Amino acid sequence: LNPSAKLDRLQSTLRPKKAELAPLRDAERDSLWEGKRSHGLTLEYSLSVKEKDGATVAVRMPAINKRVYDGPLDHQLYYIVDKYHRVVGEGDIYPEDHKLSKGEYTVRVLLRHDSPEVLRKLETTPLVLDRKLDTAVDNLAPEKQPGSLDPELQRSICRDFSRILFPERAS
Length: 171
Prior knowledge:
Helices cover 12% and strands 42% of the residues. By secondary structure, it is mainly β.
C-alpha cells in the first residue's frame, strides 16, 4: 500500500448575507400553465480576496449544482460583482473557475421555481468557494511527512488512547 494525496484547492463556505424572494416581474411573460407564476430567490454572499496576486475561485452550491432534469429548480444562475458593481464573472449549474483580483466582491445567486415554499427552504443555502492554490501540496500521507511517527508506533498510540477513552471495550 502506497498512499498519496495532493492538495490543490482550498474550500470555504459562505452563508448568505441577504435573501430576497419575490414573484418575477412580468406577470404575462413569467406565468406558467394553470395560472401558476414563477418566483425568484436572490441570495447574496460577500467574498473577500486578500491575496495580492488575486485568486482563482469556483462558486458551487453542492445541493443543486450539476442537476439539470432531475433538479429541484427551474433555473439557477450566479454572477460576481466587484465593489463598483461591475460583473466580473458569471455561471450556472456547472461550476467554472474565475480569476479575481484583490478586493471585495458580492456573489448573487438567482434561483427560480413556481413554488415560493420551495424557494423559502433554500434561503439559508451555503455557497462553497473552491480556491485554487498557486502551488499544490503533494504527499500528504502521514508516513511521508518529515518527522512523522513510525506507522506501528501510531497504531500503538491509537490503541492506548482507545483503552483510556473506552475502558469498557478494553480486552
